[in-house]
Amino acid sequence: MPANLQHWIDHLKQHPLPAMALTAQQVSTQMGRTSTTHSDYQRIIARDPGFALSIFRYLGELPKPPREPVTSLVHAVALAGLAPLAVGTKRLPLIKSGEDVTRAQGLLNCYSRSAHAALFLSHWAQIRRDANPDELLLAALLHDCGEMALWSTAPGEMARIEARINAGVAPEEAAVAQLGFTLPELSQALAEVWRLPALIVSSAQPAGAFQTRSLGVMLACALARSSSACWDSEQTLTLIELAAEYCRQTIDQAAAGLHACCAEAARQLHGLPLPISAPALLQLTPRIVKEVDTERVETQATAVEHHTPERSKVESDNQSARFGDQVPPSASAPNPARSSATGMEVTTHPRIEPDAPIEPSTLVVPPVQKNNPAAGSSLQYMLSGIMRQIVAECGVERAMFAMITPDRRSLRARFIIGATKEAKIRTFQVGLEKRHLFSALLLKQQSFWLNQGNREKYLTSIPEELHNLLNIDNFFVGSLFAAGTSLGIIYGDCGNDGNLDQASFNLFKQLLQHLNQQLAENTTIRIAS
């Protein structure tokens, strides 16, 4: 942990976030009624991140904190009783009106975004039939606890960060330039110190984009931030597309649901000194939105363990991709596998020559937009963009991202474009303990093209159980790395083999090289260990 981050944690962890005066008043009123339920308290406190945080800090500071995880406001009140509520109404600093509101405007903007994000995610939880929607609500409400703490205790620092962002600097870079670390890193560290629920911690990590519920928190908060500025910006429309994918809806359905959430937010936040985004909906101009075609493969997605695979020696060759002679296995590698179907021993180990360097002028992938909240820090956003471009420009009809599982023993499909819901490719999974094409690809950044010219030679290196999932006559495949660690592969194929040629393969390689370069340069991409 950077020394300056630890310094800020030591400073911020002692200071409570202020609550809004109306919240304290309504909580006090409910405490005086015998008919009040735990859900009544959640309905009031779920609009006020400051009051919500005070309850969990109270639990974390008990001499004997709860043994079981406390994941929602309802659970916290049921477990701790009225004590934290009484402490909150009496001891928390309050934002009342007039000068208080003016002075705390940056903090109130942050509170408003969190309240909107909580409503968005609660709506999505109903659509997805989530088993614990109250946990998601709380995670969205406190996701930006680090930013809130800075606005409360050091508003000048946050004002300078916002000034850099308004000048065109990426949010992560602006925070690092001002503080030496990013705001999500601060939120994660404070959430751990305050013993907040695990979902809040995981959603502050980039690897959370591959955990379904953490991804929902990240997406809701990014959408609340973007829509607070403009509802019909490219950023917001892109995030609505991602929300449609997340909920398996059409874009129109997702947008209509979000607009309804904004109207509900205006109703629920009435009387509080929080800005709302609903009035901006009245200023929307008609716009044609392209229908989304990306679908999530699984509901459970996990982060990749930090591990650096051993690299093999590479021979240069003029071919764009080829296998070389047999490579001796490393000390920890298993012996070559024997095919259960054919009884033949796989004696060749895939070796693929390094991709030729690309001149900057030949790159066709647009850079990640620095002012896009979903870009840069969201690996899922980057993958989605690359896969769409592969389908649009490389002649493939289906594109798949398969990710290494946390135990690094297998490769499993995560995102797919262009396949029907019944397509067998959605069940793609292959073990990595045996030597085959895909395990070889993950040794380093490289690409391979299986075609009629080399199919007979390399077909035995493709596990037989995958033959009915993939187009084993013609496909492109390449590996992805992040933070020096193999992340997975991107695969593309087409029913018409004539669509895949040398030119389209060269473009496929360029796209993957550019994505690997972005992953290497993006300081916010971290791989969970």
Protein model, in words:
This protein folds into two domains: 3-290, Orthogonal Bundle (Hypothetical protein af1432), CATH 1.10.3210; 297-529, Beta-Lactamase. It is elongated, with a radius of gyration of 25 Å. The protein starts with a helix and ends in an 8-residue tail after the last helix. The chain has 21 helices and nine strands. Helix content is 45%, strand content 9%. Strands 3, 4, 5, 6, 7, 8 and 9 form a seven-stranded antiparallel sheet that branches. The chain is of the alpha+beta class and 529 residues long.
State the main characteristics.
45% helix; 21 helices; alpha+beta; 7-stranded antiparallel beta sheet; Hypothetical protein af1432; 529 residues; 2 domains; two-stranded parallel ribbon; Beta-Lactamase
Taken together, the total number of domains comes to: 2
Describe the main β-sheet briefly.
Answer: 7 strands, antiparallel
What percent of residues adopt helix (DSSP H or I)?
40-55%
For CATH, the homologous superfamily of the largest domain is named as: Hypothetical protein af1432
Number of helices: 21
Instruction: Label the CATH architecture of the largest domain.
Output: Orthogonal Bundle
Report the order of strands and helices: HEHHHHHEHHHHHHHHHHHEHEEEHEHEEH
Cα(first) to Cα(last) distance is 15 Å
Extended strand count = 9
Text of the CATH class of the largest domain: Mainly Alpha
Shape: elongated
Chain-averaged pLDDT: 81
Rg to the nearest angstrom?
25 Å
Q: Which stretches of 5+ consecutive residues score pLDDT under 50?
A: 287-377
Q: What share of the residues does DSSP label as strand, in percent?
A: 5-15%
CATH topology of the largest domain: Hypothetical protein af1432
Secondary-structure-based class equals: alpha+beta
